[in-house]
Design a protein that fits this description.
The chain has about 130 residues and is mainly alpha-helical. It has a single domain, classed as Orthogonal Bundle (N-utilizing Substance Protein B Homolog, Chain A), CATH 1.10.940.10. About 70% of the residues lie in helices and about 0% in strands. The protein contains 7 helices and no strands. Helix 1 crosses helix 5 and helix 3 crosses helix 5.
Length: about 130
C-alpha cells in the first residue's frame, strides 16, 4: 500500500527503487516477492482496477479519495480481480485492516463496501454454469 502511494506521487520510474526498499526492509524472500508482485501488478492494472473501483464507489470519483484509501482499494481490487490464488474475502479483510491502521475514521467501512461491490461485480461477470441435465 505504501509503495502504491509512492507510485501515485512519483510514477513508474520509482519501481526500481521500490524493489530496493522491499529488500532493505525484509529478509524473507517470499515477503519481498509478494510485495513486488502485488505492487507491480496493481500499478500495471491500475486502469482496470480504477474502473472497477469507480463503478463500485457510487457517487465518489477517484480524485476525491485520499491517496491512502485509493492505494488500499487498488491493491484490494487487483487481488480480487487478478490473483485467483488469494480468496477474495482474505483480500477484503486485509484491505480493511490496512484502512483501520492507515486510513481515516470512515475508511474501513468505505473500503469494505467498495471491495465487496468489486467482488460482487466480478462474480456476476463469471460465466454461468449450464444445465447439463437432459
Amino acid at each position: 500500500m505504501q509503495a502504491l502511494c509512492q507510485l501515485d506521487v512519483q510514477g513508474a520510474d520509482l519501481l526500481p527503487a521500490l524493489r530496493m526498499f522491499f529488500r532493505e526492509n525484509s529478509d524473507e524472500d517470499l515477503v519481498i516477492r509478494l510485495a513486488e508482485q502485488w505492487t507491480e501488478g496493481a500499478w500495471s492494472f491500475r486502469q482496470q482496477c480504477d474502473e472497477e473501483i469507480a463503478r463500485a464507489a457510487e457517487k465518489w470519483t477517484l480524485s476525491r479519495l485520499s491517496m491512502v484509501d485509493r492505494s488500499i482499494l487498488r491493491l484490494g481490487a487487483y487481488q480480487i480481480l487478478f490473483c485467483p490464488d488469494i480468496p477474495e474475502k482474505v483480500s477484503i479483510n486485509e484491505a480493511i485492516e490496512l484502512a483501520k491502521k492507515y486510513g481515516g475514521v470512515q475508511s474501513p467501512r468505505f473500503v469494505n463496501g467498495v471491495l465487496d461491490a468489486v467482488f460482487r461485480g466480478k462474480k456476476s461477470d463469471l460465466p454461468k454454469p449450464t444445465d447439463v441435465r437432459k
